[in-house]
Amino acid sequence: MSEENKKVEEEVANTPETTQEAAAETAAETKTETVEEAPAKEVAPEVVEESTEFDWDEFEYGIASKGKAQREELTKLYEESLTSIDEHTITEGKVINMTDREAIVDIGYKSEGVISLNEFRYNPDLKVGDQVEVLVDKTEDKEGQLVLSHRKARSIKAWDRVNEAHDNEEVVKGYIKCRTKGGMIVDVFGIEAFLPGSQIDVKPIRDYDAYVDKNMEFKIVKINHEFKNVVVSHKALIEADLEEQKREIIGKLEKGQVLEGVVKNITSYGVFIDLGGVDGLIHITDLSWSRINHPSEVVELDQTLNVVILDFDEDKTRIQLGLKQLEAHPWDNLDSELKEGDKVKGKVVVLADYGAFVEIIPGVEGLIHVSEMSWSTHLRSAQDFMKVGDEVEAVILTLDREERKMSLGIKQLSTDPWTDITTKYPVGSKHEGAVRNFTNFGVFVELEEGIDGLIHISDLSWTKKIKHPSEFTSVGAKLEVVVLDIDVENRRLSLGHKQVEDNPFETYATLLEEGSVIEGKVLRKVDKGAEIVFENLGVEAFVPSRHMVKEDGSEVAADERIDFKIIEFNPDARRVVASHTELHKQVKADKQKADRVQAKKAVKVINSNVERSTLGDLDALSKLKEQMEDDEKNG
């Protein structure tokens, strides 16, 4: 407020006269009036006319003693001391007072403006005496109050300031308003700018909400004038300081050096450590001497720990760190008396198809290969014998302390079944086993754990023609077998299934001789004929296509039961060939033979009675003779 304004207000405040005092003086004068003065009351109409020019300022404030001219002069001086300002213009004001919710701003106008502190959230350090930009929204509202806006003033000048700050690479202050997809929304100069999540800090941010409603310093990194987009970064301010630290740290890196770092990020394959501006990686295998499934079992985010530098590239941009190397190797704690052949106990920590890793002491593991889990030669998975967490006992098969490798076995805890194989399974003995798997040439049958034998495809059946073992049996099926041969040195056992029964080709040799007629069932038709079985004998035979024709010209059908004639029998090759066509051909031939015999008898009768023959009889006899000759030629 100017000095002239203060003088005017003092003049008005120091005026002591009141309306009541003036009324009291008038009443006293009225009581002392004489009768002669009564006509003076007739002047009242003139007083009433003058009341239209009644000076309310004099009546209300009692400043009549100053005179009207003086009062007009004081008013003029007061009005000249005030700033003349138009609405919707931007000007600077001074904060003259602050409450919990508002700031009182003087712009030199006849009244001050009131602005909500919400418009100053970006500047928590606002104090009385600060100069701020404001927009004159209204010089007077309905209550005569000056209406100002700091937010609108900032918004109008924001783009100029943003461009200037970007061009000059200035550091600006901003207020983080809220979260959004991929980052945060920041109020910078009244403009909503985007702060990507990756630009908040040099380390990964796990709690974005912790930054909301905070004021931070930023650097404007990108402006899109077409879409009015602004991108800011806080990370860029930090990186400038970290770059110098990074160069200093990298320059001093040496293999074997121990540094302090902070866990920055945890992945399935390792842990990233912040060494003070430089990141290094601890691979999962370098976290602990013991086997772990995930790095989070050993470390946690933001944990401070010591690490050792194992290696780095020439540019020192990729640094390999180790944690377990700061501790003594567990193999150094292994009992020095342990040797091959000793029994040890441990816990299964890892299972794979090829075997199981057993931890003997923390950090010392031995491998039990699946082939060392059972005496059986049948291929199986380690999961068939044990599971993770099982406590097992094993025998040390190999022990290399320099290479820190150990192989174990559990089948060695039981007797090798092949040691008494010839006694338990002599040649010619009969047994029952389970089908384990097939090959193109035979079937593997397990007689007991560790004892497997092979049945060759030719030893599955005496009579059936088997192209693949799966046609004859299935995995898991029980089969009776006979031990045919034993190779102890190579652990091979030859078995046979058909030998359980007698050879039908030897038993039924007389019934299968050529010319024999037997009822058979057609099993299936093939390209060149059909396969049949003589069910009573259990023997299969082959019927060529030309031998499948019936008497009426049709062919023998599948599943049909009908008589067949054996036309070939080879017991050594187990080959039987049969024919149905030969049966009705034979019947026809026999009939023709019988007819010829009958005709010959008739000729004899005719010759004996020739004297009684007539010419007609001679003609009939001649025709009969010709027919018999034709029949002989066709037969």
Task: Based on the model shown, name its key terms.
single chain; alpha+beta; OB fold (Dihydrolipoamide Acetyltransferase, E2P); five-stranded antiparallel beta sheet; 11 helices; Ribos_protein_bS1-like; repeat; structural constituent of ribosome; S1_domain
Summarize the structure.
The protein is of the alpha+beta class and 635 residues long. It is 22% helix and 33% strand. The strands form six sheets. A five-stranded antiparallel sheet has the order 3-2-1-4-5. Strands 8-7-6-9-10 form a five-stranded antiparallel sheet. Strands 11-12-13-15-14 form a five-stranded mixed beta barrel.
What does this structure look like?
By secondary structure, the chain is of the alpha+beta class. Among the domains are: 89-155, Nucleic acid-binding proteins (OB fold (Dihydrolipoamide Acetyltransferase, E2P), Beta Barrel); 169-240, Beta Barrel (OB fold (Dihydrolipoamide Acetyltransferase, E2P)); 253-322, Nucleic acid-binding proteins (OB fold (Dihydrolipoamide Acetyltransferase, E2P), Beta Barrel), CATH 2.40.50.140; 342-413, OB fold (Dihydrolipoamide Acetyltransferase, E2P); 417-496, Nucleic acid-binding proteins (OB fold (Dihydrolipoamide Acetyltransferase, E2P)); 504-585, Nucleic acid-binding proteins (OB fold (Dihydrolipoamide Acetyltransferase, E2P)). Helices cover 22% and strands 33% of the residues. The strands form six sheets. A five-stranded antiparallel sheet has the order 3-2-1-4-5. It has a five-stranded antiparallel sheet with strand order 8-7-6-9-10. Strands 11-12-13-15-14 form a five-stranded mixed β-barrel. Helix 10 (581-608) runs antiparallel to helix 11. It is elongated, with a radius of gyration of 60 Å. The model is unreliable at 1-51 (pLDDT under 50).
